[in-house]
């Protein structure tokens, strides 16, 4: 056992932790990061859930499966004939793994570049020490290290359905859902949230018959209603079976697959038999093995580390960021918090604007939004104006062959300040950035309407939706 001292120790090397470590190193601190994730060979795999079994591999499979669907269903519209179209699932999964590895290696390189000391193992609080806190590292590295500031970025784990533990063979979390070795004939999903829709889309495109069982009576309740309705229509048309307002009962897993007893919205008893079941009913903050009790670090009733607006915990010089604290479980939210905390440690004024964190669901059509929904504004009693523009009337969307959806602006009735932008349609993930920038600068809808947008581009739909707020679209 050696004893090493650092200015800042980050526990967790996901998007929150590794970005916090880099920013702290840029600010001149002597930084260590502890992360326990293991790759298939037992070696380190920096990047956390996001890189290993989250954002990155899911987007790799979404891309591959979309190519497959285009080749099978849409190339003919462009006059392209495809014969003998087939699927090499091993290669597809192998490509996804290679994309993950590129990202793991990229972070390892960034740690070296920024002179961050990396410990591969589990970090746990041992005790408060003179200079700050003593932590133990167990695993590939066995160390006792000391830090003046500790940033906890230990992420989250999938929530299991009571009575249906994940076995990653039949009952799958996001981990197993990203490595099903052969396309299941029938696939069940519990939860039509972000993971349910993204993973359901992947396997439907590859040929599975997909049924999604959702407890809530409304589809994508957090999304602007008009946008959610449009998305629902598109998913149902594609062949996703989505059952809302269900109550899931007993789940039995056997050699032949999984049988799920459930009741529909009318209260009628139903049975669903599937080859594989993905359970995507949310995630829980992760403090397993962290030993917060050793130093009296406070957790809330959900198991999240209690923090204030600035990510300060109940202990001096201990900070927590990302999925292990309140707020949306998004990689970019974790990153922003990581940067802000490193800057606060340096005495700067790091800031995260929670009102302008964008959300994206990477289905087809993509769904993206920032700011408030129409139902939220109504509930608040805020006077607003709405403007929408359909991709059907956008030249670039027609050329792409993807005219599903719309851009929607919500602006204050009196000041015209943009309060929310909601998009369902092609490349919504990229289009939303303009809205985020606009809202950060407190732009009005008219500001966007007056900016020159390239033609032909999907972004013209954004400009037109801004014009629609003042009822003066040019192309619709
Ligand atoms: P994590 O990424 O979970 O990283 C935590 C790290 O800490 C892990 O490496 C873990 O091994 C390590 N760790 C935990 N405890 C210890 C310990 N005691 N000692 C040492 N190491 C420890 N978000 C998006 O913004 N966009 C997306 O497209 C997106 N897609 C997703 C798809 C899926 C399938 C899933 C599951 C999630 C997705 N997310 C997405 C959410 C995103 O992955 C998380 O919000 C993000 O990873 C949170 O970052 P984090 O740094 O807080 O935690
Ligand atoms: P989620 O919170 O998005 O959706 C969970 C869904 O399951 C909800 O609709 C909920 O009503 C439903 N549900 C809960 N209990 C249920 C039950 N017993 N029976 C039936 N339905 C039930 O959670 P999900 O999809 O697991 O994803 C977790 C988080 O990961 C997301 O909230 C998001 O923060 C992050 N993520 C982000 C992505 C992105 O940004 N593109 C992609 C994937 C995940």
Q: Helicity range of the residues?
A: 25-40%
Q: Please summarize the sheet with the most strands.
A: 7 strands, mixed
The average pLDDT is 97
The CATH topology of the largest domain corresponds to FAD/NAD(P)-binding domain
CATH architecture of the largest domain: 3-Layer(bba) Sandwich
C-alpha end-to-end distance: 70 Å
Kindly state the number of beta strands: 22
Question: How are the SSEs ordered, and which strands pair?
Answer:
Layout: E1 3-11, H1 15-26, E2 31-35, H2 48-53, H3 55-74, H4 89-113, E3 117-120, E4 122-129, E5 132-138, E6 143-152, E7 156-158, E8 171-172, H5 174-177, E9 186-190, H6 194-205, E10 209-213, H7 225-238, E11 241-243, E12 247-254, E13 257-263, E14 269-274, E15 276-279, E16 283-285, E17 318-320, H8 331-345, E18 359-361, E19 366-371, H9 374-380, E20 384-390, H10 395-400, E21 406-412, E22 418-425, H11 428-440, H12 445-450, H13 459-469
Parallel strand pairs: 1-2, 1-6, 2-3, 6-17, 8-15, 9-10, 9-15, 10-11
Antiparallel strand pairs: 4-5, 5-6, 7-16, 12-13, 13-14, 18-19, 19-22, 20-21, 21-22
Helix pairs in contact: 1-8, 3-4, 3-6
Bound molecules: flavin-adenine dinucleotide and 1,4-dihydronicotinamide adenine dinucleotide.
